[in-house]
Write a structure and sequence with these properties.
Chain lengths: 383, 61
């Protein structure tokens, strides 16, 4: 520790040298990142660049001799490189730079091989499994969109979704969709939209581009973040043939931004037509049913038992009349009417033999109308 | 009596008619059956008229 206090402050040179000593201890290291801000100045023997992390918003200032820069062949902005660098401290102005003596470009072949390996390991973890896929909402309240600034992809999503469902609401995050900043900005936007309870589905989209342009969408940290999101994600990255790993982890992979728009909102006219159709069908069915029942009821009511209830009394009346006429025919009244009489003893027994009675017996003589009381004067015959 | 459902009234009405037409019932029973049949037919009619009115009302709206 360097001894110091407010009373005994250290001069700048001492601290600057101390920092230089600390930095020296790091030694030479191999670093991988993306090149940017390449400055080849005429008259200067050195080339100055910036080396960016591929997933985080961090970068280092790097430099090398022109001959080393040229030895690596054509190095474009955003090229993926590996350098062997040593940190150098410029005590003159207190700046830090990584000075490298060796640089290798990471070729497309190498990147593809890594991508394949990453894909296999994520697949083995089950990140792409179909049972992890969430169903897209039928009608989202708010559609989250992550896209490039003023991009065609954004326009395609917004226009097509509005055409299908005019009142669709968007939460749009315009971010860098290529280069070193893409992973950081897309991840940040994804976190924000996933946390928004109103956002029911998130579209991540960008147009076609070079293999390197689409690399951020295969970044492991972004793919893992997407797999942890609770909001369903639709990816529409590049063209059909491009298959960034985000496509595999997304809940739905759309072929184009237009396709993504189609997937996230229903077509209002199609839905209205369906409803109209179903209402008509329901009405036809119920009308038919009522008609059927009315006809059944009409038929039932026209049956004689209901239409002419008197018939059931009439038949019984006829029956009764006929019985009555039989009764009349069988009655002794008719015989009495012809002048015959019936003789009964005092106790009501019918007299058919003269010896049933004696002189002085009381008799009742029944004629057609009324009864005569009589006394026997004498008896003759009988037996 | 709680208002019968259309199906219940329809079923009961069919049974009443069948019994009446069989001629097995006494006069007293027949009178009761006939009164019940009229009542059930009215319930059925009421249901169907109501349903028709709802459909027509909806069509006018």
């Amino acid at each position: 520790m360097l001894e110091n206090s407010a009373d005994k402050p250290l001069p700048v040179r001492v601290i600057s040298e101390a920092i230089g000593d600390y930095i020296d201890r790091l030694g030479a290291v191999w670093i991988e990142g993306e090149l940017s801000e390449i400055k080849v100045r005429p008259g200067s023997s050195m080339v100055y660049m910036r080396l960016r992390d591929t997933s985080a918003d961090m970068s280092l200032s790097i430099m090398c001799h022109q001959s080393i820069y040229k030895s690596a062949g054509e190095l474009a902005e955003n090229a993926r490189v590996i350098i062997n660098a040593k940190a150098s401290w410029y005590s003159k102005n207190g700046s830090l730079s990584m000075n490298f003596k060796e640089i290798r470009q990471v070729g497309v072949g190498e990147l593809l091989a890594r991508l394949e390996a990453l894909k296999n390991s994520l697949a083995a973890e089950g990140l792409f499994a179909s049972n992890r896929k969430k169903a897209l909402p039928f009608l989202p309240r708010v559609v989250g969109v992550i896209c490039g600034r003023n991009s065609d992809a954004e326009k395609d999503v917004v226009e097509n979704a509005k055409r299908r469902w005019p009142s669709v609401q968007f939460a749009i995050r315009e971010v860098a969709v290529q280069g070193a900043a893409a992973v950081v900005e897309v991840s940040q936007a994804l976190r924000e939209l996933d946390a928004d309870p109103e956002v029911d589905v998130i579209i991540i989209t960008r147009g076609g581009g070079s293999f390197e342009d689409l690399l951020p969408f295969s970044d492991e940290s972004l793919v893992r973040l997407a797999s942890e999101c609770t909001t369903p994600i639709v990816s529409a990255i590049g063209h059909e043939k491009d298959s960034p790993l985000l496509d595999l982890v997304a809940d739905f992979r759309a072929s184009t931004p237009t396709d993504a728009a189609k997937r996230v909102v229903p077509d209002v006219n199609e839905e209205l037509a369906k409803i109209t159709q179903q209402r008509e069908r329901a009405r036809r069915t119920i009308t038919h049913k009522i008609e059927q029942e009315l006809s059944w009821l009409g038929q039932i009511r026209s049956r004689p038992v209901l239409r002419d209830p008197l018939s059931m009394i009439r038949s019984r009346q006829d029956d009764l009349d006929s019985l009555l006429s039989h009764l009349t025919a069988l009655s002794p009244q008719g015989v009495l009417d012809r002048g015959y009489a019936v003789v009964l003893t005092g106790d009501g027994t019918l007299v058919t033999q003269a010896n049933q009675v004696n002189a002085g017996s009381q008799l009742a003589i029944r004629v057609a109308k009324g009864t005569i009381a009589a006394t026997v004067n004498g008896v003759a015959g009988g037996e | 009596m709680e208002k019968l459902s259309y199906e219940a009234a329809r079923q009961a009405l069919a049974e009443v008619i069948e019994e009446l037409e069989s001629g097995q019932a006494t006069l007293e029973q027949s009178m009761a059956l006939w009164a019940k049949g009229e009542e059930l037919a009215a319930i059925c009619q009421e249901w169907l008229d109501g349903a028709t009115k709802v459909l027509k009302g909806e069509a006018d709206a």
